[in-house]
Amino acid sequence: MGDARTVRAVNALTSGWAGRALRRSEETVFSAAGVWPLLALLAAGADGAARDELERATGVGAGEAAGAAGRLLARLDALPGVASAIGLWSRATVPLEPGWAGALPPASHGVLSGDVAADRAALDAWADKRSGGLVPRLPIPFGEGTELVLAGALTVRTDWLRPFDEHGGVLYRTTALLDRVEVVEAPCGRVTVLKVLGTGGIDVHLLRGETGVPGGEVLTAGVGALRRAYPAVPGDRLPYGEPGPGVTVSRVHGWDRRPYLSVTTVPFEVTAHHDLLDHAGLFGLAAATDDSRGHFPGISRRPLAVGAAGQTVTAAFSALGYRSAAVTAISGIAGGVAPSTAKQVDAEFTGSIGFLTVHRTSRLVLNAGWVNARLPEEDWDGWDESGDDAGGAA
């Protein structure tokens, strides 16, 4: 997929974001892979404290940041089912440094006219088009003081190699491949991980932690499991009983002696909006928001500071596959601007669960989230309490 160092840096940002932004168990979804290239491009043009902070946030030196961002974007865009894009808009009064602008993809630069309504409409149209209609507006405020906008879009589409069966709003699947599930011994306790394989080398890992463990800790454990940071027991080696959250291993009588894994979960959709400046330190943007001076001489000789930074992400998990879109934007303002038994593993991913969308071979996390996947309540309306079966034998 790409440079191993870049993958580690993006996944580290995913873990940091989960740990800081998901202290409670509210539903959310976010994409560090959508933010990282923009931060790297900013780092390439920054100086002083802003440069130092952005280098720490991205995990790469400013001198190599633009190249790393370009390679990541190109390799993401080459993946089946994944599309990435970068857009830059600037006023005529903001001359761009040729070396920095030359690192951007071709035809990615537009001009801000100064007409706030027209410019806003153009930016929103870009977000809508690049997200496939899933994110219709750029996720930052835009006004008279906006002199530059750097935006990115990342969409992911994958169809399951084996679709789920769906009945009454619940998803079911049975497989003989027990290693699709594993139980990880993480610092936050046991975490059950289910790998749902999709087309194009894109998988979704469903995560279920122990009761009461914050979602951020469960997601961080899931990212750590990608690099084998913690001991893990695959499904075919799990002991009988309840070896992990939502997992039951038992013996069943039947004619088929082959072991099998039975999975139960529910479809979900989640959308989240993030103000990245709420965690400016995490993203390396704290110093860059000081508008008493400029921080990006490598971008333009006009002094610039960060005025706003945001991301909107939407994701959907269904019986057939997974779809997501993330749009991220950062604005610049003037600075100083039977006869036998078989082993059965039952894994239930309901209640509060996490998910990671992962490129299979590189283990790059494309986005991550936390949802309350509740089983639908049984509809008792019209239930005949007399016990008579008017429909005869089933």
UniProtKB/TrEMBL annotation:
SUPFAM superfamilies on file: Serpins (SSF56574)
Serpin domain sequence ranges: 25-166
Any Pfam family matching the protein: Serpin
Domain of life: Bacteria
Name the record gives this protein: Serpin (Serine protease inhibitor)
Organism: Actinacidiphila glaucinigra
